Amino acid sequence: MKKNIIFIMAMTLIMVTSVQAQEVQNKMAEKENLLLVETWDKTFPKSDKVVHEKVTFVNRFGITLAADLYRPKDRQGALSALAVSGPFGAVKEQSSGLYAQRLAEEGFITLAFDPSFTGESGGHPRNLASPDINTEDFSAAVDYLVSRDDVSADKIGIVGICGFGGFAVNAAAIDTRIKATIAVTMYDISRCTANGYYDGADDAAKRQQMRKALNAQRSEDMKNGSYKRSVMNPEPAADAPQFMKDYYDYYKTPRGFHPRSINSGQGWNMTSSLAFLNAPILAYAGEIESAVMLVHGENAHSRYFSEDTFKRLKGDNKRLLIVPDAVHCDLYDNMSVIPFSEIVSFLKDNL
């Protein structure tokens, strides 16, 4: 009898705590008072096979994230679900929304979200990146999905594109609720920033020079009362590397331009890079037990990120898919190149 009373009291406390936690999240969301665009302003056409709505949720740093939720029409019961984000510097109206809508057509409930400090999501200062917070953004999206009655809580996966492919792999290493991860045309932002951190190269002097420059910028920002931003994807010279031309073609032309996108012109808060110098986000990739699929273009300048990451993964539920002839940005939006059939098959096998 005494044990039963203790159990009932414990369960009551859990229920009350859960309700209070939700109330706190709701108040946080109200505090940021996000202004969400309700009209269709994506870089891709709207599908008549899915239902779309705007939603918000709060991460553990108290930042309210804005997202587009896509649900397949004419499907009943609890479904497998996916949280989608990326590329690094993009918004949900670009590539991640395209992936989310397409995968919803395949029967998944999908959530394409703007990362913290970006797009319609909250967080200040704006246009900032963080290895910790951007990884947490995926887990916060999982929090939201598990709270929905139409989602199977034990069948949730994530999809990360470009730099958010790296954050997705990092999220899979810490969040055991994630049962399958797809990283498409991934970048390891830590490695990219730190100039060969994982290669064993002696880049300490170069990193120290970067630290000095970025900390000097912090001082300058403080004096000016504003944050200097980078210039993103200017029109490339004729002899510029092809990948720079590809980035320009996606972000700065009608193909993929969006006014809220950092890479389309808003620019990054310049001091964002500091945190990535000391935070190798894929340090524990080898401990991921859930399924992971890395997708990259054969001719992508960034291909080595996926190949090297795949070498770190363990288990027989991991796969590296190299798409013939594709370059990095092909996997942003080229529907004739993106291997959706194989991505869907992998997800359905593992969710």
What does this structure look like?
With 351 residues, the chain is α/β, with parallel strands linked by helices. Among the domains are: 1-30; 48-188 and 281-350, Alpha/Beta hydrolase fold, catalytic domain (Rossmann fold, 3-Layer(aba) Sandwich). The protein is 40% helix and 17% strand. Strand 5, helix 4 (163-174) and strand 6 form a beta-alpha-beta unit.
Chart the SSEs and their pairings.
Blueprint: H1 2-32, E1 50-58, E2 64-72, E3 79-85, H2 95-104, E4 109-113, H3 131-146, E5 151-161, H4 163-174, E6 178-184, H5 189-193, H6 204-224, H7 242-251, H8 262-266, H9 273-277, E7 291-297, H10 303-312, E8 318-323, H11 330-333, H12 340-350
Parallel strand pairs: 3-4, 3-5, 5-6, 6-7, 7-8
Antiparallel strand pairs: 1-2, 2-4
Helix pairs in contact: 3-4
CATH topology label of one domain: Rossmann fold
* Beta content: 15-25%
Low-confidence residue ranges: 1-30, 196-200
By CATH's scheme, which homologous superfamily of one domain applies? Alpha/Beta hydrolase fold, catalytic domain
- Rg is 21 Å
Instruction: Estimate the mean pLDDT confidence.
Output: 90
Largest sheet: 8 strands, mixed
**N- and C-termini, Cα separation:** 41 Å
- The tally of beta strands, per DSSP, is 8
Indicate the CATH architecture of one domain.
3-Layer(aba) Sandwich
Any descriptors?
351 residues; alpha/beta; Rossmann fold; disordered N terminus
Write a concise synopsis of the structure shown.
Residues 1-30 and 196-200 have low confidence and may be disordered.
